[in-house]
Structures are given as structure tokens and as C-alpha cells.
Design goal:
It catalyses: D-tagatofuranose 6-phosphate + ATP = D-tagatofuranose 1,6-bisphosphate + ADP + H(+); beta-D-fructose 1-phosphate + ATP = beta-D-fructose 1,6-bisphosphate + ADP + H(+). The protein is an alpha/beta fold and 304 residues long. The chain is built from ten helices and 13 strands. The chain binds adenosine-5'-triphosphate (ATP) and 1-O-phosphono-beta-D-fructofuranose.
Length: 304
């Protein structure tokens, strides 16, 4: 079974207006509320691909109720730990530019945290756990890392979509895949990356440090995959970008779900790319129809 972990889910409140003027009253042309959070997005993409998975995390209050109901309506399996405090609301403003205002997240009690972590005891070697998204203030920086140790003791696999020191620390535990974007990769090593050669050079370091597969996403410029034997490059298909929020999560979902099913990294990369672009070309996350429409447009070449 694949489990996704979203410790800090959200309602994504999407607001569209022609132009945002700071310091004035702005009127929306359109708004929408969607269940959000990176792990939840991964779960929704896995579901679109017909892959069985369960979403874990913390949900509370009227906002948490909205997220739970919206997900359950789609038939997604969930097992969220209930909390007293309200799940956050993240504001996504689509005006002359895309601006995001993400909440810090609710306080968790010791009992709530203990109830959540107890679930990891039942994992087996057949499971994959995908951690994605920010921590809430009441969780220590080592929260993911401590759970990853439990996962590895059980012989299960894990994927982690995070940045900085929290990512570097997990590499010796051999994540199935890591996917920084090109800017996050530069920040990780405190360098400027001026060419694809530079990106590949630093991407390879993540592999040497323990990652089983490395994806580097580059938004409208496509993506790279670095494996032990080869480096692959794909240019993104052209299309009208409607909402790129969640493109990275979609790529993780497409890659991990397909890899878990086929053990074929190239096929997994193909699905990861298709899911990422399909989301960028959709209002909400991509659905199965959009993903299947984009798949034949994905071209991957070996990068030498
Ligand atoms: N404008 C775009 N056009 C086509 N494909 C895109 C576009 N933006 C993203 N994609 C696809 O989705 C993949 C992931 O996108 P991106 O690099 O923006 O991830 P990210 O930075 O993690 O995104 P986010 O944090 O917004 O989810 C890209 O590698 C690419 O394949
Ligand atoms: O604040 P975090 O946890 O880093 O990111 C949360 C978030 O921006 O990520 C998703 C898109 O990737 C959204 O659904 C959600 O609002």
C-alpha cells in the first residue's frame, strides 16, 4: 500500500482577479475552495492513476471537515488523525502574478501526535510512505526523520518532498526518489546553477548521498531524471498554463505510483512528467483524462 503523509493540510482558497493592488479593496472575479496540502495532492493523483493509496495526516475543525468530506466524496481512502484545532486555509491569488499565502498550521497536542505516529507500527516491507509538505509549529524538525527510521526498520520504502537540511539528513536512509526543483537544488548546495550540466552535477551528488532516484523539476522547462546508470531529460509539452499549484506533487505521485507498480524508472519518469504538465494545464489538479491526453506528448531523451 502507498500512504501519503500531510501533517499540515489546508483548504486552498483560490482567488482570481485581473489585477491585485496592494493597500486597496480588490474584488474577486472568481473563487474556489479545494482540499490542499502536498501529500493530499499526491494521493489525489495516485487515485486518478487508479493506484490504491491512503492519505494520512491531521485534520481538525470546520476546515478539516471540509477537506475530509471533499476527499471522501471522490472515493479516496483516508485515515486522518482528528485534532481539536482548525486545519489552515492557504490563499492562492491568481492576478498579474501567482501569489500564495500559506498558513502556519494548527497546534497539535501530545496525544494527537502519539495517535498519529502509532500508525507507523503496522507498516510492512510492501509499503511506501510519501512525506510531503511543511511541518506544523508543534512538530520538531526531526519529526519526519524519526518516522523514516521506523519505516526503514520495517523494510518499507519512503519518499520525501522537502528542502534544505531536512532533505539532506534523510539521504543516508535511501529515499526511493527525491525531487527538488532547480532552484531548490541550488539552495541545497549554496550554489548558482547556470546550465543543465551544472544541474546534473549537483543532482548526481544527491544520488551519491543515498537517494535511489533523483528527479529535478524545472517547471515549463521540463525535468531531469538521474539514475545510477544514466541521465534523462524531457522538455515540457506546450500548453496553456492554468494553475501550476501542485505540479510538483503531481510529478511525485506519477513517478512513485508508477514505479511502485512497474519498478521501471523510465516509465515512472514519463508518468511523473505527464502528471506535472497535466496539472499545470488544469484548473484543479489533473484528472485521468488530462493525464492520458498529455502522456503521448512526453518525449524523453538520454542526456550525455
Ligand atoms: N508551465 C508548465 N508547462 C508544462 N509543464 C509544466 C509547467 N509547470 C510544471 N510543469 C511540469 O510539472 C513538473 C513539476 O513542476 P515544477 O517544476 O513547477 O515543480 P515544483 O516547483 O515542485 O512545483 P509546485 O511547488 O508548484 O508544485 C515539471 O517538471 C514539468 O514537467
Ligand atoms: O505550506 P506547504 O505545506 O509547504 O505547502 C502547502 C501547499 O502550498 O502545497 C500544495 C501545492 O504543492 C498546496 O495544495 C498547498 O496549499
Amino acid at each position: 500500500m502507498i500512504y501519503t503523509v500531510t501533517v499540515n493540510p489546508s483548504i486552498d482558497y483560490i482567488v482570481q482577479l485581473n489585477e491585485l493592488t496592494l493597500g486597496e479593496v480588490n474584488r474577486m472575479d472568481y473563487d474556489n475552495k479545494l482540499p490542499g496540502g502536498k501529500g493530499i495532492n499526491v494521493s489525489r493523483i495516485l487515485k486518478e492513476l487508479g493506484l490504491d493509496n491512503t492519505a494520512w495526516g491531521f485534520l481538525g475543525g470546520f476546515t478539516g471537515e471540509f477537506v475530509k468530506e471533499s476527499l471522501e466524496k471522490t472515493g479516496l481512502k483516508t485515515n486522518f488523525t482528528p485534532i481539536k484545532a482548525d486545519t489552515r486555509i492557504n490563499v492562492k491569488i491568481k492576478a498579474q502574478a501567482e501569489t500564495e499565502i500559506n498558513g502556519r498550521g494548527p497546534e497539535l497536542t501530545k496525544e494527537e501526535i502519539a495517535a498519529f505516529t502509532a500508525q507507523f507500527d503496522k507498516l510492512t516491507a510492501d509499503d511506501v510512505v510519501i512525506f510531503a509538505g511543511s511541518l506544523v509549529p508543534s512538530l520538531s524538525d526531526d519529526f519526519y526523520f524519526d518516522l523514516i527510521k521506523v519505516i526503514r526498520q520495517k523494510g518499507a520504502q519512503f519518499v520525501i518532498d522537502t528542502t534544505g537540511e531536512s532533505l539532506l539528513k534523510t539521504l543516508p536512509e535511501n529515499p526511493l526518489v527525491v525531487k527538488p526543483n532547480n532552484h531548490e537544488l541550488a539552495e541545497l548546495f549554496g550554489v548558482k546553477l547556470n546550465s543543465i550540466d551544472d544541474i546534473v552535477k549537483y543532482g548526481k551528488k544527491l544520488l551519491e548521498m543515498g537517494a535511489q532516484h533523483v528527479l529535478i523539476s524545472m517547471a515549463g522547462d521540463g525535468g531531469l531524471m538521474i539514475t545510477k546508470d544514466k541521465v534523462y531529460r524531457s522538455y515540457a509539452p506546450k500548453g496553456t498554463v492554468i494553475n501550476s499549484v501542485g505540479a510538483g506533487d503531481s510529478m511525485i505521485g506519477g513517478f512513485t505510483g508508477t514505479y511502485a507498480k512497474t519498478k521501471d524508472p523510465l516509465e515512472a519518469f514519463r508518468y511523473g512528467l505527464a502528471c506535472g504538465s497535466a496539472t499545470a494545464f488544469s484548473e484543479d489538479l489533473a484528472d485521468a483524462k488530462k493525464i492520458n491526453e498529455i502522456l503521448p506528448m512526453i518525449e524523453i531523451e538520454e542526456y550525455k
